[in-house]
Amino acid sequence: MKRRNRDKTNHLKSALDQLHYRFIDELKTVPVASSLDENEQFLKELFKDCSDIVVRPFQMEKGRKALVVFVDGMIDTPAVEDTMRTVMVLEEAEDSLDHILQRTMPVAQINKADNYGDFLTYVLSGDTGFIIENETRGISLGIRGGEQRSVSEPDTESVVRGPREGFVENIRTNTSLLRRKIKTPHLKMKPFIIGRESNTNIVVSYLEDIADPALVEEVVKRIQKIEIDAVLESGYIEEFIQDSYLSPFPQVQYTERPDTVAFALLQGRIAIFVDGTPMVLVVPFVFWEMLHANEDYYERFHISTLIRWLRHTFFLLSLLTPALYIAVTTYHQDLLPTTLLLSMAAARESIPFPAIVEALIMEITFEALREAGIRLPKAVGSAVSILGALVVGQAAVEAGIVSAPVVIVVSITGIASFTIPRFNGAIAIRMLRFPLMIAASIFGIFGILVCILIIVGHLANLRSFGIPYLSPIGPLSIRDLRNTLVRAPWPVLNMRPSYFSVQDEERIGKEIQAEIISQEGQKGTQIHHEQPSKGE
């Protein structure tokens, strides 16, 4: 035993002399030595010029030495101090590490590591590391703290009716928010570490009794094959795992809302949590989900269906309105009523630019104002974007640079793009608007039709983890149309989507609805109302 400990100490000295590592995984070949002085020297040399890393040696009651290492600002300082105080008053000087953990350590979450790669991964993630003399294993205690943002309603997905909580940047807070929604042991949380420099914590979450095991295996396989120096946001993961990274259409959904993630998991989909961001990824993702909002399921189905029709209509307006204006005013004036044609001709009489140029001027200006409104402080951002559009549009019309009709067209297009619930879907429409405008300026409506055919063909060939992107319309599934173009009542939505391969398709029982119908909405027989006598 002593010879083996001496070999480990020599290995640590050799590693210290040749401390040229690239990534923390390479330190897995460096074992924790039994000599506390060697461990302390190694850690101090490793974290040289790291003012936030604390390496604090201390002595237990019977003379046995130990040290604690942590990242200042990422721990719960009072809890660490209490733990150190407890360890210092050990009764026996030769207690084994396992005995110390069982009898003394007042911490619920403890991890052991016999090499510095695993040990430092825990410490740099916010745990507190302990190394005790004559022990060849280090332990990490889950005593995390530090400042973090509190749970609040997400600004990007606000609702009139529904929960007001949103994800934050702490991955454990986010997984706990999901666990509060789905309280079952079938909710699984598979951990991964991605990023050779950042060592970012990733969690893949799914419902074991619903999700397709083949889909879970495919998601895990794609994540494990990611090789990158750092993952700073979930967008890094999204571009690696999507089926076609060249497509402008999103194949991965992201959201800040725990209820949206819970609903997706209950459909048989999979969520991916990334530490350091409130955005949680959900896969697979189909085209029609881009036009659905979580609030659709909180309101009654009548208004939810009408709002969905409104979104589909304004989705088409957002994509086609500028291109149709250019095509009609340039090539197809005969499609307009005579009165409207004369009015538009009079408005454009003094404009020196063709329709395509004035439309591009206003569209680019509107996009710039929208981007400026996002980057500016919230107190002035919305005012700048709205007032800027009004002032610039009015000034451009009065100066004779653009006509009034094109300002109306661009305004309608901008408003229509805001009705798309998924921001990444709205971005795709905003990008495709410009090729359609150019095609309309060259070929008129025929150019628009050709572009639409190309877009539809691309969507028909697109996949999200093997799921056809246009499901359930392409390929057609009559049953799933109840939750696509319309939002059917909940008693009708008794089956999960068929285009997601799931283990359990049925999600709603039929007993209550059958009972209400059979008993005419009344438990038992109908209430008998006594008729008043004529004398009363």
Q: What is the count of distinct domains?
A: 3
Low-confidence sequence ranges: none
Q: What is the element string, with H for helices and E for strands?
A: HHEEHHEHEEHEEHHEHEEHHHHHHHEEH
- Whole-number radius of gyration? 31 Å
Mean pLDDT: 83
Main structural class: alpha+beta
Shape: globular
β-sheet strand percentage: 5-15%
- Largest sheet, order of strands side by side? 1-2-4-5-3
Structure description:
The structure is a single chain. The protein is of the alpha+beta class. It has three domains: 140 residues, no CATH class; 115 residues, no CATH class; 162 residues, no CATH class. Helices cover 44% and strands 11% of the residues. It contains 17 helices and twelve strands. The strands form three sheets. The protein has a five-stranded antiparallel beta sheet, with helices on both faces. Strands 6-7-9-10-8 form a five-stranded antiparallel beta sheet, sandwiched between helices. It has a two-stranded antiparallel ribbon with strand order 11-12. The N and C termini lie far apart (104 Å). The mean pLDDT is 83.
